[in-house]
Automatic annotation (TrEMBL):
Oxidoreductase recorded as keyword: yes
Gene: ygiD
Recorded superkingdom: Bacteria
Domain Extradiol ring-cleavage dioxygenase class III enzyme subunit B: 6-237
Entry's Gene Ontology molecular function annotations: ferrous iron binding; oxidoreductase activity, acting on single donors with incorporation of molecular oxygen, incorporation of two atoms of oxygen; zinc ion binding
Organism: Bordetella trematum
Keyword terms: Dioxygenase, Metal-binding, Oxidoreductase, Zinc
UniProt-recorded name of the protein: 4,5-dopa dioxygenase extradiol
Coiled-coil spans in chain: none
SUPFAM superfamilies, per the entry: LigB-like
Annotated EC: 1.13.-.-
Protein family according to the UniProt entry: Belongs to the DODA-type extradiol aromatic ring-opening dioxygenase family.
PANTHER family hit by this protein: 4,5-DOPA DIOXYGENASE EXTRADIOL-LIKE PROTEIN
Amino acid sequence: MTWPVLFVSHGSPMMAVEPGRAGVALAQWSAALAARPKAILVVSPHWRGHGLAVTTRSQQQAWHDFGGFPAELYQLRYDAPGDPALAGRVRGLLGQAGYTVQEDAAQPLDHGAWVPLRYLYPQADVPVVQLSLDAGLAAEGQYALGQSLAPLRDEDVLIIGSGSLTHNLRDVRMPQDAPPCSYVPGFQAWFAQQLQAGDVAALLDWERQAPGARLAHPHDDHLMPFYVALGAGGLPAHRLTDEISYGALAMDAYQFGDR
């Protein structure tokens, strides 16, 4: 099986206990598949640095890399196996493409990884490897990196880019279903339109062309996993959900490539 690739918006850490439509959509997506992946590779902005690193742990654990949330969140676990062999394969593929990738045997799964995985594979029985997000790459560079990972799709590996289609924490408002900020629907719609049209060049030029780009992303870190996923999976794109959470967080999820 050639696996599709996912981009998921992980929103607030509260998604771990407040699934909303986005969590339900992820659970339905995995439940509808006739197969399960041999392993998962996930990229999240919450493990980010200059250059690349990959986790080589044989046993994963959830990192509660946030503060000020209800106590129940800090009790949640996601004890999936790791996959050192997959980590080595990732290093090999990226090395062939000219990237240097460090090994990290200590890094746990940040909430951008384990929170959506709790809906996709709640039994935590699929091995997981995390690849760090390279802060030095803009959209075009992230897209090219994703293309280098594409052979994993034919090796029973599910690739996931986890971020947020919009992410302006200064505009977050309560409750979860608060009315959306004015720029969020337009930004969502622009991405959906370019994906439907297959206009990758426009998507890579999002900072100039997307309406409300700097309001939607004062910093681009949560959008960059989208481009890793797009590069790895290619078109067509299938939109799984378009929920807006806390007014400012577009929770869009996309499947790239056919099943």
